[in-house]
Amino acid sequence: MPEPALSAPRRALHAIRQGAHRVDTATPASRDRAVDALRAFAILGVVLGHWLVTALVAQDGGLHTASPLQHMPWLAPVSWVFQTLAVFFLVGGHVATCSHASARARGASYGAWLRARLARLLGPVVALLVLWTVAATALLLTGTSFGTLHTLVKLALSPLWFLLVFAALTAATPLVARLHPLWPLAVVLHVDVVHFGLHLGPSWLGWVNLAAGWLVPYTLGAAWTRGELETRRAAWVLLLGGTAVTAALVLWAGYPASMVGVPGAAVSNLNPPTLAAVTFGLAQCGLALLLRDPLRRAMRRPLAWAGVALVNLSAMTIYLWHLTALMATTATALTAGRLPGLHTLPDGLDWVAARLLWLPVFTLVLALCWTAFRSFEQGSRRRPAGTGARRRSRVVRVHRAAQAPTARPVRRV
Question: Considering the entire predicted model, what is its pTM?
Answer without folding.
Answer: 0.89
